[in-house]
Amino acid sequence: MKKGIIILLAAALGLGACNKFEKGEGDMTYKIYKSEGKPKIQDGDYVKLNGVQTVETNTNPDSVMVNTYDNERPAFFAISKSMFKGDLASGLKLLGEGDSAVFKLNLDSMEKYSGQPKPKGLKSNIASFTIKIEKVLHKGKDPDSIFEAKKRLFFESEYKALNEKNKIVEPAKIAKYVAENDLKVTTAPSGLQYVIFAPGNSERATLTDTVLMDYTGQFTNKKSNGKLNVFDTSDAKIAREAGIFSESVQYVPRSLPLGQLPQGVIQGIQLIGVGGKIKMILPSKLGFGENGGGPINPFTPLVFDVELKGIIKPGAGLPLAK
């Protein structure tokens, strides 16, 4: 993420940029952009927040590690006692509901106390957290058992509201993606929208087959840095560009049992033969539905670009990728 994007994000949150960084606990420094003057967060409280975590690498001054806005999924954070002076919990206790700030934390301390290794290729040992506190459930003097029940009801209420919003805006997300990408889609009776770029040969996969394919799965919204919002891909170049590349992943065509894929992907792949290329836009009912899964929220439409490399019949060996 470029610095200009950070500024735009701050502006979108109603943040000002005139404050200077102040010294906090330990190695932490911070800048409060907006303060509503509400009671500060305390140990034991439960908060709903949105945020962006960035680090400075040798190739990117603002490499994004976490962005709840891109994921369209706010974080729910139980405030515990600080693990070390200058950790994120100590920073959040400077804020109240509706407040926004950025915190710069020491990655060496974070690694030491959390056990999570630092990202590779760092240029500095500082992580920046740009935070917006959406809501705060204060524990006050409630016994733990009562507050746990309140937390559960709070989370369920917020999660239900998020799902209802996702359900309402889903058709608009699909329409916007189609329009912005100037796609001439065909719509199947199931609701699947697709564009076939290459039909491939005459062979078609059946539910008992395994398919060998290159693919990219993405959300309909772009990331805040303007890049594709990819959640999975077999293409190393796309993974790097999307910021999800992992050294532990083999970026090669994947062999997957067709019958175990999302219903919309099954339908789309059966429209092409080996050598075929297709873009599929799945409404959530053909993807991960009202429950979601992993990084995918409930009622989330998805886009899959697939090139079918091979069809493997039951009991047959793996064909060479074309």
From TrEMBL:
PPIase FKBP-type domain ranges (all copies): 208-312
Reaction(s) catalysed (UniProt annotation): [protein]-peptidylproline (omega=180) = [protein]-peptidylproline (omega=0)
Family matches, as Gene3D superfamilies: 3.10.50.40
SUPFAM superfamilies assigned to the protein according to its UniProt record, in alphabetical order: FKBP-like
GO molecular function, one term: peptidyl-prolyl cis-trans isomerase activity
Taxonomic superkingdom: Bacteria
Record keywords, A-Z: Isomerase, Rotamase
Catalytic EC class: isomerase
EC number: 5.2.1.8
PANTHER family: 39 KDA FK506-BINDING NUCLEAR PROTEIN, FKBP-TYPE PEPTIDYL-PROLYL CIS-TRANS ISOMERASE FKPA
Family: Belongs to the FKBP-type PPIase family.
Protein name: peptidylprolyl isomerase
